[in-house]
Amino acid sequence: PRRYVLCEVVSEDPRCRQCIEDRAVGLAVRDAIGRVHGDYGLGCCSISFTVKYLNAYTGTVLLRCRKDFSRLLCSALPFVRQLEGRNQRYPCALNTLHVGGTIRTCQKFLIQYNRRQLLMLLQNCTNEEERRCVQKSLLSCSLTEEQPQSGDEEDDDDGIE
């Protein structure tokens, strides 16, 4: 059984998001786990730990770990203070948004989260042009169920075992 931890990279420096890579995120998380929980915690969390998804544009990160050790992972995430990218270090933090048993539940949560963020943006629009752009983005936020074609369904390791 696995758990998926959905996080966002929070940084003052706008260059941070564009320079991060999944390898750098993985190393920073492992380093934080080692500092907080020592070798035992690092060994436990490393068994099935991986960065499943990284969107540098939005700063969204999806981490996978074993269910038994998801609390160790989550408790170490606040201690990630920087990410390294292109031989530079960028101060940042990882904000945990959701912990789920499948990738699909994390996707559904992310769609609702983005919709709420867009609604907040809509309230803060200063002119009609901005308002139109945000409304268009808001209308495009929907989850459509696609019918899997015979045998084409992709295995994304998202079943709760």
TrEMBL record:
GO-annotated cellular components: multimeric ribonuclease P complex; nucleolus
Keywords of this entry: Nucleus, rRNA processing, tRNA processing
Molecular-function GO terms, alphabetical: ribonuclease P RNA binding
Family annotation (Pfam families): RNase_P_Rpp14
GO biological process, one term: tRNA 5'-leader removal
TM ranges: none
Main location: nucleus
Entry's localization field: Nucleus, Nucleolus
Domain of life: Eukaryota
InterPro entries assigned to the protein according to its UniProt record, in alphabetical order: Pop5/Rpp14/Rnp2-like (IPR002759), RNase_P/MRP_POP5 (IPR016819), Rnp2-like_sf (IPR038085)
Self-association and partners: Component of nuclear RNase P and RNase MRP ribonucleoproteins. RNase P consists of a catalytic RNA moiety and 10 different protein chains; POP1, POP4, POP5, POP7, RPP14, RPP21, RPP25, RPP30, RPP38 and RPP40. Within the RNase P complex, POP1, POP7 and RPP25 form the 'finger' subcomplex, POP5, RPP14, RPP40 and homodimeric RPP30 form the 'palm' subcomplex, and RPP21, POP4 and RPP38 form the 'wrist' subcomplex. All subunits of the RNase P complex interact with the catalytic RNA. Several subunits of RNase P are also part of the RNase MRP complex.
Functional note: Component of ribonuclease P, a protein complex that generates mature tRNA molecules by cleaving their 5'-ends. Also a component of the MRP ribonuclease complex, which cleaves pre-rRNA sequences.
Family: Belongs to the eukaryotic/archaeal RNase P protein component 2 family.
Protein name: Ribonuclease P/MRP protein subunit POP5
Organism of derivation: Pluvianellus socialis
Taxonomic classification: Eukaryota, Metazoa, Chordata, Craniata, Vertebrata
